[in-house]
Amino acid sequence: xxxxxILLKTIIIACxxxxxxxxxxxxxxxxxxxxxxxxxxxxxxxxxxxIPEDQAVLERAPVRVQYWFSEGLEPAYSxxxxxxxxxNLIAEGGVNPDDPALLNVRLPAGLPDGxxxxxLKIAFASDGHVIYETRTFFVGAAAxxxxxxxxxxxxxxxxxVPLEIVWRAVVLSAQVLLFGLFAGYAWVFVPAWGNPRYxxxxxxxxLMNRLFTxxxxxxxxxxxxxxxxxxxxxMVFFNADLPRVIGDGLWNIVRTGTRFGDTxxxxxxxxxxxxxxxxxGLALRKDYxxxxxxxWAGNGWLMALVMGTMTLASHAPGSLTLAWVAVFxxxxxxxxxxxxxxxxxxxALVLPAALHGLADDGRRAxxxxxxxxxxxxxxxxxxVVVASGFYNALNWFNEPDDLPTTYxxxxxxxxxxxxxxxxxxxxxxxxxxxxxxxxxxxxxxxRLRDFVPSLRLEAALVLAVLIAVGALSATPVPPLSLSxxxxxxxxxxxxxDDLTVTxxxxxxxxGVNTFDVLITREGAPVDDVQAALRISDPARDVRGxxxxxEPLGDGLYTVVTADIDQPGAWWTTILLENPAVPxxxxxxxxxAAAWTIAADAAVxxxxxxxxxNIAALIGLMGALAFAALPLMRRFYQALDLSPAAVTVAxxxxxxxxxxxxxxTVIIDQTNAQYARTINPPPQVVNAVLPTAESVExxxxxxxxxxxxxxAAARDxxxxxxxxxxxxxxxxxxxxxRNLPPCGALDDGQRWDVVNYLRTLEAxxxxxxxxxx
Length: 772
Description:
The chain is α+β, with helices and mostly antiparallel strands. The protein has helices at residues 2-16, 19-37, 141-147, 162-193, 205-238, 242-247, 250-257, 259-284, 290-312, 323-355, 360-394, 406-431, 434-437, 452-473, 611-627, 629-637, 643-678, 692-704, 710-719, 725-734, 747-768, and strands at residues 47-51, 56-58, 64-69, 79-84, 89-96, 99-106, 114-123, 130-139, 491-496, 499-506, 513-521, 524-525, 530-537, 542-543, 547-548, 550-553, 556-561, 568-577, 589-597. The protein has an 8-stranded mixed β-sheet with strand order 1-3-6-5-4-7-8-2. Strands 9, 10, 11, 12, 16 and 17 form a 6-stranded antiparallel β-sheet that branches. Strands 13, 14, 15, 18 and 19 form a 5-stranded antiparallel β-sheet that branches.
């Protein structure tokens, strides 16, 4: 028992010195610092790019079927299945290991014309939502015509799951009430009714007993709601009933192995700490009464952390417009809801105990003291709720067609209930000001001067609002209209001797792309070659590394790379080693293709804010400033406003702003200069596509120049990866080591030699790698 006693004593000392609240404030900051460091995790995402598009008619079968989402998926619970018109299984796939937001499947070679179904099971990582959707594509125009309208996909449902609405409503109601109790204790109850005669919490025992009882009930509801959440999400993940979820321990797999489980564990941990502080406060209030106030204040900060875990598993991180501003706004929205709505419910539940046993004058004085204090706090919370809610809504409503959706309907219901809640709050505000009640239009509000019945109405409206919020958070947001979503993946088919090589770039925009190379001979797949691919931008004389293509079987070779970093003209060069020729005995065969990369084809990952977003953000900042006005006023009153102090402060502020701007400009200029230094614009640009014919001509020209020194060729090969085309071009003019200059060549011939030299790198790599 020695160690628990030491721990208990440490906690008591920390509470007495007010260190616990500061520690919890630091934890709040650390939670959101960690959130900013985590990969973006969205909720209720949607498809932002599809290849092929729904109902697309293709001339030939694609190599892959791919769907990019606005958020990461749970690999263990997401899948894609391709079936033909007779519902026969064609192929199965899942989440791409290189991109958690990509669901893809490789199709077998030689897929015949016909209609095909893509059956998607989409398990979103952050909140565990699982969506089932079916999409259709056709190979061959005749297949589309024959299938007609009877062969179509099934769109994803935008209806929320009823059980999810239940647990979200329970969790939100319990957590908002808890936050309202702790915030109301610190900002309303103690300032209005506090008395040092009651050291255990500064409130009368009957009132503290009511607060502890309400907090205990709300905590029990929060635990029950979160347990129901885990069960429901597990049932959805595994498509299993509750007995199997419990009996087979599937819930623990979700708890420990999913993003939803991570946030759930954090939330339950914080709630357990809240419960521990409440129990400790009850146990210690006789011997150490001063800890009660510190524990209750500390629980307010812990509930801010709980609200943070809800934000991280909400719609907010999925915003494509300033995602982390959306996270902050949603967190602020949740806490302001707790202060306003949760505080109103807490006051309605606590007020009867506070007024019990008081005479009429005492009841009136106690009621007015609490209501005046609460209306100021509630007004600040209400303004922040409205401002942050407006900003949050703009993240999802981008055009008028988004309004008549299930999400738009759920939001309309919530707004109606919030309007009623604001009306009741406004009536309370007027009832506390006798001079306003003299106006004829407002005399009916005199009936509210007892406050208890109207507070009960306000608490009922709070519950209705939270149920509406639960439905809203369980409803998929309207998908964003994306122009690039309809662009097909660039594809090029070329002949190389007796081989047919089909290259596909998916999605075909700047950023990460999958390069699929299908090699066939007279329709049969070819699996016995080694292949390498290089991507280059001739205008900038920039090229990526030479990537060995991974053989996947059935003649398909692939690589994933982010070498394409901007839209414009790009070249791909594919080098194939001929297995019939001994290693190192001949140049590899080569084909090249020119591509036009469009910016719209890239998978959308962010979106610039519009004027409405900026205006809403300014409004949110103003609302937060209004809420912090009392604190700012106290800070202002503590300032030294003497002329000397103001001059020094203004000068220091101006100097700081100047230094920040100057440093930013210097850093930008330095980075730009560094980029120009390591990769200056080329003085000569390779205008000859490195085709097999160009390489063949270059090999003959190099031999005619007398470039037959093996040592020099070996050294040059080792330098090729870090040598630009313009430097190789100059080498043909000036020679290098024992390689003499090639004088009698025109520009086209010199570029042929350069293209030939590039193949030496592939030859060296093929010689080092095992045979395919």
